[in-house]
Amino acid sequence: MSDWWAEGLLFENCNCTAVCPGHIHFSQRCTHEVCHGFWAIRFDAGRAGDVDLAGVDVVIVYETPQVMVDGGWKQVIIVSDRATAAQRQAIEEILNGARGGPWEILSRFVGDARPTRTAPIRIEEAPGRKSVTVKGVLKGAVEAIRGRNRAEPVTFENIYNQIHDTTQVIARGATRYDDGEIVIANDGTHGLWSHFRWG
Asked: SS3 sequence, 131-147?
């Protein structure tokens, strides 16, 4: 099922100090024995077969070992309750790797995929800041770190990553999340964002 593409905004926060070693490569040792955080995804455009993906928001919450390449990740996908049933199915297939592409690579490390959920999701974007709320369970935000030229963000350029663009804005973030199984309380920790294109 390779007949798909998507583009939009992707941002993240985890409990590592900036920058998360696992972001550089999954073989690097993260700051803590357990790395936990989220990816927030805003689909600005895209199609999976006949399904239009534009306008759908998604959050992936994860918990991984200190060396991420060891696998056994715990993960839950939360899709906006505004998505149609066809959109939910297509996005779940993309994010669990069934449709190929970058998430097929990441899915190899997931050992405990929790059932996909739906909930009201609000993603907000402002200059130098991105935030996400999942009603009742998550509040997260990332803010660009200060550079020498304060009018421009600090960025990674030409960095290899499966899901992010090659240019990424470096940030610090904060997250509160509790679904009764995964609990996250991050403050001033690793964050970044980019505009992705998958397919």
From this structure: EEEECCCEEEEEEECCC
CA distance 58 to 76: 11
Backbone angles phi, psi at 98, to 5 degrees: -65, -25
**CB neighbour list of residue 7: distance below 8 Å, 6 or more residues apart:** 43, 44, 45, 46, 195, 196, 197, 198
Q: What is the pLDDT of residues 145-195, one digit of tens each?
A: 999 998 899 999 999 999 999 999 999 999 999 999 999 999 999 999 999
pTM exceeds 0.85 for this model: yes
Closest C-alpha to 170, from 151, 153, 195: 153
Distance between CA atoms of residues 15 and 37, nearest Å: 6
Q: What is the pLDDT of residues 12-42, one digit of tens each?
A: 999 999 999 999 999 999 999 999 999 999 9
> Which residue shows structure tokens 């007949």?
3
Domain boundaries, given as residue ranges, for the chain: 4-198
